[in-house]
Known about the structure:
The chain is mainly β. The protein has strands at residues 5-13, 16-27, 30-37, 40-49, 52-59, 65-74, 77-84, 89-96.
Amino acid sequence: MSADGSWKITINTPMGAQEVTATITTSGDTFTGKTEGKMGSQEVSGKVAGDTLTWSANITSPMPMTLEFTATVAGDAMTGTVKLGAFGNAPLSGVRV
């Protein structure tokens, strides 16, 4: 599994679908990258376990919270969930671009 490359990711939140573009570079059991969307851009880093990526991101809008991501990569597709602080989980999907 290689998650390296650019991804268009959609997170289906209670406030509607949020789209971000992510660039990912793996190195062994870790990865680094950057996400960009309507709410701005952010450097990210996380863990790689087989075909699964995990990472967290701190946001300030629409309110401060930490988002916790778990995504599984299969070829050019990504699926997973995002823990939205106290607001439960939201599904995510992505395609390699």
